TrEMBL record:
This is MetA-pathway of phenol degradation.
Amino acid sequence: MSKHRPHRSSRSASWGHTLPAAKSRMLKRNLLFLALTAGATATLALCSKAQAAGGAYVVDDGAINAPGECNVDVWYQSTRHQGSSHNSVIAPACTFSQLPWVQLGAAVQRQQADDHGETQLSPQIKVQLLNREDLGLQLALAGSAHWALNRHHSFDGGDLTLPLTFSASDRLRLNLNAGWTHAYDEGEQNHRWTWGTGVEYDLMPSLTLIAERYGQRGGEQGWQAGPRLHVGQHLDLDLIVGQHLSEDRDRWLTTGATLRF
């Protein structure tokens, strides 16, 4: 090690001057959320099993939980240019032994922007249509509905998606999505076709790199990418950057975790 290495306090001061105050606060919140999530769930890691895909990523895969297995996804997302805008999500899902081809779940999302908050509940179902390990193919049908809990017009829309996963090798998986969405945008009903492509590459047993590109016909488009750290075989930790490719091209940073039991 070099004996001229700067003191810790000097590096911290330099870091603090590099980032604007709003971006520094956003980064600290994401790192704190990741640290708290890891600490709270590490004690459960010995009794659960982690898998790839899912979490805060938009492009779904064709797999479901094994019969009798559940998972909980949690993540926190902040926009880069608007420190006051953020989303928090918790999404449990289970596959029961009596229905080994069906995964049932729900997502609770809290959106906060400009001192205005909204909570949304989204029940979810995912049915596996094909699972051919010899061909490396998995196909499913996923659906969800969305209700805003603190709004007069509570029904916010729904989605249907066909996610297909092709395992090109032991390390590389490709995800393709085609679907349809129905949404209420400020009182206007919109129906759009949706699409998405994603890639997962296992760089090493403890690290997977994930990237995706997705969009709606005539609507929102964006991309996300980041590393996924596998803590043993039981817990996944995500750090994701993303950007909209339409309108104001907002960027965001997401931290999250997936726990299976």
